[in-house]
Structure formats: C-alpha cells, structure tokens
Task: inverse folding
C-alpha cells in the first residue's frame, strides 16, 4: 500500500508544472533537516522533468516495440497461449520523465483477459466490427527499495519499523481496453494540456500583418509563424494540468501500440495470433536533432 501512495504522490508532484521551484540556501551553522534534503532532491529532479516536458515532449526515442509471441498460427480457431511483449527501449512519458525499458517484458494475454471485468472489456469493444481494442502504454514509476530500520514513531511497536532507503527508477506497463479515437487529436506539444486550436486566435492587427508577411515569404515560413501564433495563447487558461488523480495518471502514460482482437463474443474470446493485429505506429515519437541531421544527409 505504501508503494501505491508514494507513486500517486510522485505523479501529483511531477504534474505540478506551475509552482516555482526552490533550492536550499546553504549557510554555515544552519540546521537542515529531512525536509531540506527532500526539497534539494525535488529541485534538481523537477528541473529536468520540466525541461523534458516543455522542450522535448512525450514520445518514443527508440525501441519499446510491441509484438506478440507466437506471431502466427495455422489454425485461427484454436486457443493459443499468446504473450504480448514490449521490447527494450527508451522514451519520455507524458509528464517529462525518462522511461527506460532495459529488457523485454511480457503479459500473458489469456490470463489478462480472464482477470478483466465485463465492464472493463466493453470499454474497448467495437460490436459493429467484432473487434476488441486494447491500448498498450508505459510510464515512469517510483519503486521504493532497500528497506532499512528507522526510529520508531509510536510507543510499544510490536516490530522494528523499516522504511525504504532508496527510490529506484522503474516503469509501469499497462494494457487497457479502449476504443481508438475516430480521428487523431490535434497537435499536442504537451501531453497534459489540450490540443492546440486549429487556427490562431486573439491576434492584434499588427500580428495578423506579421503572419501574412511570413506566409507571403514562403510556405515554410508561413507554417512556422502560424504554429507560433497558435502557441502564443495556448496557455491562457494556466500551465497546470488536470488536477484529478486519474487524469494525472492518464496524462503520465505514454501510448506504445494499439492491439485489436477479432471476436464476436466477449464471453468467449479465442486468443489466436491469426485474430490479433498490432499497430506500433500510432504512438508519438520524439524527433531529435540527430535524426534531422541524419535525414538531411540522405539523398
């Protein structure tokens, strides 16, 4: 239970993008306690995650390919022990935190389906096309480790109290029954904030003239200035993401793939590779300067 509480607290802290950061002002003879140590850690950690959130965005850098094993079957009507596998890779989740999958992870699809309620599966069922849709996502997760004895805070404790002495960086992989969107959402430079408006709004006459001049200069210059004009008022409602815990967790998750399973009956799902399709290219990718430099050198 303590690990769940710590993880929720970590999500809430990392999603706080508007509070000014504070670092410890060290002075000779100053008495510093646990609060000061945590604030110092928080300052450096949150500076990095905020930079990655605002400047880099969320997406896959490399790897984390989703696949199924076995990949094929001769008899599409037989029930097969299929595993959903997420390969090694690196990315940044929706709150700007590094996601490092250092080895392949897998989920037994039959066992996962059996553990889900009918209501949960209905959320991803397309009855018109006889398909169950699943979303594969990943996010950073704090993992308390290395339990050590600590001073008791209550009298007459029956056992020696222990607390984790380290917080390891880990990941949380999730399968969720969810219908794919009818259309891809608009450009979202920041995962925890709404998409940008389709057209610029609130521009002054001088700004409209500047935009028109850029469009007259070249198509590329016009598109870039149009994007800047849309970004100009993107944060008028504030820079804080949604405050509800479930919304914060949803913002934190990074989409990896969508899986569809052909089935006409949720009470009798035949798990077979011939009925399963995986699409990794629906995920967001991060475009790095090295990638752009590589593309510019291609013929």
Result:
């Amino acid at each position: 239970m303590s690990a769940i509480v710590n993880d929720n607290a970590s999500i809430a802290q990392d999603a706080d993008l508007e509070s000014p950061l504070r670092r410890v002002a060290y002075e000779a003879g100053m008495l510093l306690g646990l609060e000061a140590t945590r604030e110092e850690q928080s300052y450096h950690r949150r500076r990095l995650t905020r930079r990655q959130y605002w400047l880099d965005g969320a997406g896959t850098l490399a790897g984390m390919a989703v696949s199924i094993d076995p990949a094929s079957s001769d008899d599409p009507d037989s029930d097969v022990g299929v595993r959903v596998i997420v390969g090694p890779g690196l990315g940044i989740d929706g709150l700007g935190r590094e996601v490092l999958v250092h080895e392949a992870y897998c989920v037994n699809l039959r066992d996962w389906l059996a553990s889900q309620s009918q209501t949960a599966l209905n959320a991803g069922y397309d009855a018109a096309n006889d398909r169950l849709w699943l979303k594969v996502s990943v996010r950073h997760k704090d993992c308390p480790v290395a339990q050590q004895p600590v001073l008791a805070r209550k009298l007459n404790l029956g056992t020696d109290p222990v607390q984790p002495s380290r917080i390891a960086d880990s990941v949380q992989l999730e399968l969720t029954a969810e219908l794919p969107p009818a259309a891809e959402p608009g450009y979202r430079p920041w995962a925890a904030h709404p998409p940008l408006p389709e057209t610029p709004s609130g521009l002054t006459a001088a700004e409209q003239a500047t935009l028109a001049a850029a469009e007259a200069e070249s198509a590329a210059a016009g598109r870039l200035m149009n994007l800047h004009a849309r970004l100009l008022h993107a944060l008028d409602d504030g820079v804080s993401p949604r405050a509800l815990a479930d919304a914060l967790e949803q913002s934190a998750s990074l989409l990896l793939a969508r899986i569809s399973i052909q089935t006409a009956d949720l009470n009798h799902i035949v798990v077979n590779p011939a009925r399963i399709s995986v699409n990794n290219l629906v995920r967001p990718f991060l475009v790095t300067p090295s990638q752009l430099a590589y593309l510019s050198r291609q013929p």
Q: What stands out?
A: Residues 23 and 40 are 5 Å apart (CA to CA). The mean pLDDT is 87. The chain has eight helices and eleven strands. Helices lie at 2-14, 34-56, 109-115, 118-122, 205-217, 219-232, 245-252, 289-296.
